[in-house]
């Protein structure tokens, strides 16, 4: 009896030991089988739209569980597979991006279908696959630009308008003048209108406007714009900077450069007149893109009453105690007013800016369509808000001396896609008719 009682605990202990050894193995097998219960993530970019010959297609596969095992990509046209790529991976691969360049590939113009499939490294019945497709269009032909308006006469600092047609939908188009670009806007009749400038700092020999167009596939086309360019001589002016004026702009400096340690009034003024001026002009380029795609103005632009105290593109030398300290170009017309005179909208338009803007002080910018805008600066009061629609002659605020002004006046400017141009042209009904309006139809 004693021998029988001694053997039973040994069998029970053996079974427990076997179970203890098997549990980690079973857990490991379970993890191996069940570690990934979802298929790989799979994307094709671009997944729609147009491609050019220089375009690429990128297929991205990802599996954070079992990892990737295989990626297959096919590009078909009709029933034919034109491009085929297959990649096999080690189990450690969790992410892969396959980029296929279309350059030199045996593809025809027109529709293409991209088919991608990714397999993960799951065990037996627990392996997963993911498939996705994308339908795209291959277009390798550049757009064809057909000018409607032929000859364009421009004066240095002035504006011009051209009309042209293009044989397909575009991603972007406009006129390049050196490093400047003036967008074009499509009209209801299918034509494009583009207001552009012969900038004040561009002489006729360097003025070479080029129509540029980029289609939906990224194909680019260019065409020289026929033109006649006339030089213009701008005035030189000498401005003396009184100590009292420099000191008076301390508040402006602290507002726009609150953390700048500069305390010298002249040093502050120089920074305002250079750094801030550059920042403000960059802002005008940005605002210039906020424009109606159709013209909003009607006829010539109103000239605000008052004597001209500074003209467009005056080249200014600044002197302090008889020493030249700075040089800038004045890109508008200054009109003297009685203090707090009412300022009217020069033409129909939409308010796209009504706030403080550095050297321009409190100002309003009106959009008149297809990139044409007017700016009313140094106001003491603004009576409109962004989004308001104004009619020619409607009061928008009162004159003042905010910003970098030395006295109460209106700084009036005309902008083409943010680039300052000669206001006098836009005050002239005949000039507008001959150079702008006749090209609308």
Architecture overview:
This protein is of the alpha+beta class and 441 residues long. Helix content is 18%, strand content 41%. The chain has 6 helices and 32 strands. It has helices at 2-34, 243-248, 250-256, 265-287, 423-426, 429-435, and strands spanning 41-45, 50-51, 56-62, 68-77, 80-88, 95-101, 110-120, 129-138, 145-147, 153-155, 159-166, 170-177, 180-183, 185-186, 192-197, 210-215, 220-224, 228-230, 236-240, 308-310, 314-320, 323-330, 333-336, 342-344, 349-356, 362-369, 372-379, 381-382, 389-390, 395-398, 409-416, 419-421. The strands form 8 sheets. Strands 20, 23, 25, 26, 27, 29, 31 and 32 form an 8-stranded antiparallel beta sheet that branches. Strands 2-8-7-4-5 form a 5-stranded mixed beta sheet, with no helix packed on it. A 4-stranded antiparallel beta sheet has the order 9-11-15-14, with no helix packed on it. Strand 25 (349-356) and strand 26 (362-369) form a beta hairpin. Helix 3 crosses helix 4 (265-287). The longest helix has 33 residues, at 2-34. The protein is elongated and about 110 Å long. The model has no long low-confidence stretch (mean pLDDT 92).
